[in-house]
Amino acid sequence: MLTGAQETEYIAVIDDGHVKKQILTPGISDVKPTKFSSVQIHYESFLFKSNKKFDSTYDRAMPKEAELSMGVFVKGLELALLTMTVGEEANIVCSYDYAYGEEGQYPLVPQKCKVRFQVKVLSTWEKVDRVHDQLNMAKAKKDEGNGYMKAGHVLNALYTYKAGRQYVIDLWACSFDELQESRALIVALSLNMAACYMKTAEWKTAQELLKYVIERDPRTTKAYYRLGQIAIQLEEYDQATDMIKEGLTEWIEDTEDRRILENMITTIEKEQQVALKSKTQVYRRMFN
């Protein structure tokens, strides 16, 4: 629970001091939202005096995504978010006039109640309308996500890749060259998202993304290779082997891509034999 002494460690977000912020974890980049940005955040909300939690995206296992200045977040939280960078985690304390007002939010928040939000910024992005700008923003988010991934910030990378993909996922009213570029970006960003899910062992989600990539571009070697890696984790050997063999039809000639996939099939078959031998030994011990 925060004490009055602890509250003095906060810095004022606005001049009257009715919104204050305490940085818990510094950001991992200089990227911060602007007044009309969209953000993806995790947060927990507490009554300040009792420290009673009344809302949490962590409990729902789903970050909150919203455009600022649309009234989705309380005023004090929006003002504080404008000062935060991607990856930053902070405590935000808001007086009632910058939170839920005189009436509160029955039955969760009493009247004239000061509240505290513990917030982490996962990603932020701008709304753009021109095709050229959408393509550029998608590329920028891919590069930004790559930077987070290399630094080991998998969750921030994932949500940044997701933000980048949103710019181009439904891009149709454009030239042929722009359409081809958007398709390539969708494939690249989806591959990167799958890599993030593999890092967090969310195998099925990664698997579905990779299948989507193959539908978009059947000659994406990385997608087949990663499906093979997932198959070993899930022990879905035959299914993965069949899919990779189907992929091999895209490379009739002897190329490096073909050799990579052939080697993956060999690896899967070896792992399948190891797994089968292990299970056989278990069954023998059970019946002896």
UniProtKB/TrEMBL annotation:
Transmembrane regions listed in the UniProt entry: none
InterPro entries to which the protein is assigned, alphabetical: FKBP4/5/8-like, PPIase_dom_sf, PPIase_FKBP_dom, TPR-like_helical_dom_sf, TPR_rpt
Enzyme class: isomerase
Keyword annotations from UniProtKB, A to Z: Isomerase, Repeat, Rotamase, TPR repeat
Catalysed transformations (reactions): [protein]-peptidylproline (omega=180) = [protein]-peptidylproline (omega=0)
PROSITE patterns: FKBP_PPIASE (PS50059)
Source species taxonomy: Eukaryota, Fungi, Fungi incertae sedis, Mucoromycota, Mucoromycotina
Residues of the PPIase FKBP-type domain: 36-125
Descriptive protein name: peptidylprolyl isomerase
MF annotations from Gene Ontology: peptidyl-prolyl cis-trans isomerase activity
Classification via Pfam families: ANAPC3, FKBP_C
Organism: Hesseltinella vesiculosa
Keyword set includes Isomerase: yes
EC id: 5.2.1.8
